Structures are given as structure tokens and as C-alpha cells.
């Protein structure tokens, strides 16, 4: 996964989802990263959560359980 800052990711997300609010997306991403850093695990398989997917996907999960894919090389993960 490519690691990018929360702000950078939020801007990309808004480009694809122009009806969403930038501040709201940033705060959801921050929350998700904080949960990840404090040890939150995927609600399906118990692996470490994918902060981006958990912030925008609606449930606490890892990359594989949220997307159904194993190759995460073209996706992003955010950090604080
Ligand atoms: Zn999982």
C-alpha cells in the first residue's frame, strides 16, 4: 500500500466524491487511524484494520474483507 497523509487522501476522495465534506472526511480518517493505532481489528477476520476503508466503507475491517481483493499494491493507507 502507498502511505499518504490524511489531507492528501481526503483531497483525492473529495475529487471522486464531490458531494462529501472535506472536513468530515478528514475527521473520519483521523478517527480510523487512531482506532487502528490503538489496536482495532477487522470485525470479520481479526486482522489489523485498514484505516482508509474503515473510514469510508462503513464498517471496521481489513483491506481484504472490505474490498474482497488480496492485492493492495494500488491502494492507499493513511497515517497521522
Ligand atoms: Zn478482515
Output the radius of gyration. Answer: 12 Å
Q: Percent of residues in helical segments?
A: 40-55%
Number of H- or I-type helical stretches: 4
Measure the end-to-end span.
Answer: 16 Å
Determine the mean pLDDT.
95
Strand order of the largest sheet: 1-2
Can you tell me the number of structural domains? 1
> What ligands are attached or bound here?
zinc ion
| Order of SSEs | EHHHHE
State the major sheet: 2 strands, parallel
Give the low-pLDDT segments: none
Shape: globular
> Percent of residues in beta strands?
5-15%
Structural class: mainly alpha
In short, what is this structure?
With 80 residues, the protein is mainly α.
Question: How would you describe this structure to a colleague?
Answer:
The structure is a single chain. The chain is mainly α. It has one domain. It has 4 helices and 2 strands; from the N terminus they run βααααβ. A two-stranded parallel ribbon has the order 1-2. Helix 1 crosses helix 2 and helix 2 crosses helix 3. The model has no long low-confidence stretch (mean pLDDT 95). The chain binds zinc ion (ZN). Zinc ion (ZN) binds next to helix 4. The site of zinc ion (ZN) has 8 residues, from helix 4.
